[in-house]
Amino acid sequence: MFYLLKRNIQMKILLNNNDLNEALNNVSKLGFVPTMGSLHEGHISLIKKAKKECKKTIVSIFVNPTQFNNKNDYKKYPRNYKNDLLILKKLKVNFVFFPKKDDVYYYKRKFPIKINPNDQVLCAKFRKGHFEGVLDVMDRLTNLIKPSKIFMGKKDYQQLLLVKNFIEKKYKTKVIGCKTIRDKNKLALSSRNYLLNAKDLIIAGKIAKKIFVLKKSIKDKKNINKFLLKEKNKLQKTFNIDVQYLELRDKKKLLISKKISKSKIFISYYLNGVRLIDNF
Ligand code: AMP
Q1: Which of 34, 43, 136, 266 is catalytic?
Q2: Measured between alpha carbons, how far is 21 from 219 in angstroms, rounded to an integer?
Q3: How many whole angstroms separate alpha carbon 70 and alpha carbon 133?
Q4: In ligand 1, which atom is closest to the CA atom of 151?
Q5: What is the average pLDDT across 175-180?
Q6: What is the mean pLDDT of the chain?
């Protein structure tokens, strides 16, 4: 009896599409958390939310090659599979999907995924082909897993909007945006933080704090975009970083905004060769 109980609560590791189809046969109200692994408290918060809102939870770990516009970035991306599995087991996740590239990309698309020209802003502008790869993998994973809900972080806000728009149009699945988890220095948790040394982590925390302060002061500025351009230059000099964008955009359509209400500040920068993004 005890053995059976123990077996019932055991996490199932699904290594290919056959395993997946077998395990998910008859599973309803499934919550899905897609990840690229190197799990941290940000991922954990999504998983906890999925567990609360759904009957069963599946987490995928797949470093998706098609969303990397730079081969070296793909190679360098941190991978900590053993530790990931320990974390997921502790959380009592029902299923972990660990597909190979051929499981996900088992068919060729008739028409390539295209991002609307109006959406070619922020990361879409600076990482050509990135979101096409994200939508491609999310389409394929959703089709394979058929979840009721997908849980994604607001940390990657532009990704969340694009995926929500794409998936909810095509499937019955709902995409749920979840709040950004930060460390004690206000730095948004990210798998890419594993690529930073202790000194850089402190700098990244200082940059996050600075933008929180900046956001408070923005209300009084006459020309917000001019102000942000100045602040961008200051950030580059003070912290020796290469800022790709520092922009105020509205939360719904990501259009450049002139007022702080219903808007967010978006930043992307390179710190010692590591590209970080955040929004406030
Ligand atoms: P990744 O493994 O980086 O592809 O991220 C998988 C999911 O975790 C995405 O939906 C991210 O937005 C989300 N995520 C990453 N970092 C955080 C964070 N600090 N807080 C909340 N969600 C996050």
Answers
A1: 43
A2: 52
A3: 12
A4: 10
A5: 98
A6: 95
Q: Quick one: what percent of the chain has pLDDT higher than 70?
A: 97
Residue 162 beta carbon below 6 angstroms from any ligand 1 atom: no
A 10 A CB-CB count for 261 gives 8
pTM: 0.95
Instruction: Based on the residue annotation, tell me whether 43 is a catalytic residue of this protein.
Output: yes
Helix H or strand E encompassing 176:
strand 174-178
Q: Measured between alpha carbons, how far is 116 from 147 in angstroms, rounded to an integer?
A: 26
pLDDT tens string 89-143:
999 999 999 999 999 999 999 999 999 999 999 999 999 999 999 999 999 999 9
Nearest to 118 by CA among 131, 108, 101: 131
End-to-end CA distance of the chain: 51
Distances in whole angstroms, Cα of residue 246 to Cα of each of 83, 165, 214, 233? 34, 24, 11, 10
Residue 35 Cβ inside 6 Å of ligand 1? The answer reads: yes
Measured by CA distance, the residue closest to atom 13 of ligand 1 is 153
In the reported structure, the alpha carbon of residue 189 is separated from the centroid of ligand 1 by a whole-number distance in angstroms of 8
Going by CA atoms, what residue is nearest to atom 5 of ligand 1?
35
Q: Which two tokens stand for residue 275?
A: 């590209």
Task: Give mean pLDDT, residues 51-73.
Answer: 96
Among 155, 162, 183, which residue has the most ligand 1 atoms within 8 Å of its CB, making it the best to mutate?
A: 155
pLDDT digits (tens, 9 = 90+) for 203-255: 999 999 999 999 999 988 889 999 999 999 999 999 999 999 999 999 999 99
State the residue for tokens 């500040």: 265
Tokens, residue 53: 């809102």
